[in-house]
Each structure stands twice: as structure tokens, then as C-alpha cells.
Amino acid sequence: MTDRNQGGAAQQPRRRGQGELEGQVLAALREAPGPVNAGWVQERLGGDLAYTTVITILTRLHAKGAVTRERAGRSFEWTPTADEAGLAALRMRKVLDAEANREAVLASFVTALPPGDEQLLRDLLAQAADEGED
Length: 134
Prior knowledge:
Keywords: DNA-binding, Transcription, Transcription regulation. The protein is mainly alpha-helical and about 130 residues long. The chain is built from six helices and four strands, in the order ββαααββααα.
């Protein structure tokens, strides 16, 4: 499907960013009153996505551990286990797990952080260490 701009030339529809649909699906699930089916999610996303696309996104989120599913008749009901930040963390962990030299990847990541983010990371690590001592 293409749109026309003011001059009448065809424009390609905006391409979604990587993970954008997953974020939208998670946001819809977090607004749900409880476990919901894929049709409910499709309606909340405006209905312009194919049902099979919604199922694919839910299945990918399930494989990543970001949602759980429970059999409900012939389909599933879905519940979020992660928010968008948790999903981003899962993606980061997946990238890190795919690398042979974790130390080099982490060192490169940390040294590239702006000073505010570096301090935030230090604070979070200190907090995690304190909680681990309890």
C-alpha cells in the first residue's frame, strides 16, 4: 500500500523501527484487564495489523520470555512478564550472549557511555551488590 504526497507521487508507508511492534504489543498487554487473546491485542493496536502478524509478534515475545501464554480453548491468552525496558534488556542480553568475548563487549559498551549513563550504571551496580548482601 502506498500513499500519495502533495505532488501526487507515491510514497512508501513508514517502516517501523526494530522492536517497535513488540513494544506496542507489550504496551497493549500491560493495559489489559488480565490475560487476553490475540484478537484483543489486534483491536487495541487499531486493527490495521493482520491477525497472523499479531500472533507472530506474541510468539516472538513468548520465546524471549517477555510474555506468558495459557491455552484457552483452541487459542492462547497472553500476559506480559516484561515492560519495554525489560524487553530492551532481553535484546541486549541476547546480543551479549552471542559474542565470544563478553569482557571485550562489556568494556567497549561501558567506555562508550556518556558520563551521566556511566554514573547511573555504577549506581545500579552498587545497588545490586547491596541487595545481594541482604
